[in-house]
Write a structure and sequence with these properties.
This protein is α/β, with parallel strands linked by helices. It has a 3-stranded parallel beta sheet. It has a 3-stranded antiparallel beta sheet with strand order 4-5-8. Helix 1 packs across helix 10 and helix 6 packs across helix 7. The longest helix is centred in the first third of the chain and has 16 residues. The radius of gyration is 21 Å and the shape is elongated. The two termini are about 25 Å apart. The relative contact order is 0.19. The chain binds glutamic acid (GLU). Glutamic acid binds next to loops.
Length: about 300
């Protein structure tokens, strides 16, 4: 059993929240639990709550899965404000911001393959971080001409190496991490998650990002982008992942891990909500029938943090 949620630090000035599932598979209880935390914290601050479908990866995204995710979220009592935003429809907006970064001299083209990056990172004098070693940032004009002639479309990377990004997570505390020259647009033209999420959160007015702890390692790159784009940095709270009884991240082999599977076993959606909320420490009598019980418990949690 994991400890209940505990938050630190002052409340964000702008507490609007969001949940942003990738429609590549059915939400499992861990995803639903994170969504419930994000929703309850926003509602406890009388803030708006946004829903976004992160379908940037066309190969892995399914419209029917997105619909099912929205239904499951509604079934456990989560509601949201405004239209559901889909990343696949925002390409022009991402391109506009890429142009801005480029005009500021913050981008360069990169032709490296995955194998080349892997070999460079492993070399004896490779970089001290795990990320991109900066190979294409040091190309001569002649080397660039050769790569351009190859016809292979380059990815776009930021010039971030050598800088640090710092932020304070409302759950896990202060973090500071070195940046690498990460990708904002892939060679095939697809925009990167780190870029899209920053623009989307900004455009949807999101001031508090509550999401799974598996995304904590992406946050320094997003903070860096917010800073370079002159955008206010949201408050972050990375919720510990739900683990199976063996201590491993929740997965299919742990049994009934989706809402549909729990319902098939006789549990109501309200009972699942109450269970997930009690694990987070924001449950309470009546939570099975009334989602507002959870909002009230989240308000008490915020009171203790302030
Ligand atoms: N779409 C991402 C995921 O499902 C979450 C993005 C985010 O919350 O920033 O893992």
């Amino acid at each position: 059993m994991q400890p209940p949620l505990s938050l630190r630090g002052p409340r964000p000035a702008q507490p609007d929240g969001r949940f942003a599932p990738s429609p590549s598979g059915t939400l499992h209880l861990g995803n639903l639990r994170t969504a419930l935390a994000a929703w309850a914290l926003a509602r406890a601050q009388d803030a708006r709550f946004r829903l976004r479908i992160d379908d940037l990866d066309a190969g892995r995204s399914r419209a029917a899965v997105a619909d099912e995710q929205l239904r499951d979220l509604q079934a456990i009592g989560i509601d949201w404000d405004g239209p559901v935003i889909r990343q696949s429809q925002r390409t022009a907006r991402y391109a506009e911001v890429v142009d801005r970064l480029d005009a500021a001299g913050l981008l360069y083209r990169c032709w490296c393959t995955r194998a080349e990056i892997r070999d460079a990172v492993r070399a004896p004098h490779g970089p001290r971080h795990d990320g991109y070693p900066g190979t294409c940032s040091r190309l001569t004009a002649a080397q660039i001409a050769t790569r351009e002639a190859s016809g292979r479309p380059p990815a776009l990377r930021v010039r971030a190496s050598g800088t640090f990004a710092s932020f304070t997570d409302r759950i896990s505390g202060p973090h500071s991490a070195p940046l690498d020259d990460f990708v904002v647009r892939r060679g095939d033209g697809a925009h990167a998650y780190n870029l899209a999420v920053v623009i989307d959160d900004r455009d949807q007015g999101v001031g508090e990002v509550v999401r799974g702890a598996d995304l904590l390692e992406t946050t320094p790159r997003q903070v860096w982008l917010h800073e370079r784009l002159g955008l206010p940095i949201p408050s972050y709270a990375h919720v510990p992942l739900l683990l199976g009884e063996d201590g491993e991240r929740l997965a299919k082999r742990h049994g009934a891990v989706t809402l549909a599977e729990r319902r098939a076993g006789g549990e109501s959606a309200g009972a699942v909500r109450a269970l997930l909320a009690s694990q987070l420490g924001i449950g309470g009598p009546g939570a099975e029938h009334d989602p507002q019980v959870i909002v009230a418990a989240a308000a008490a949690l915020l009171q203790r943090a302030a």
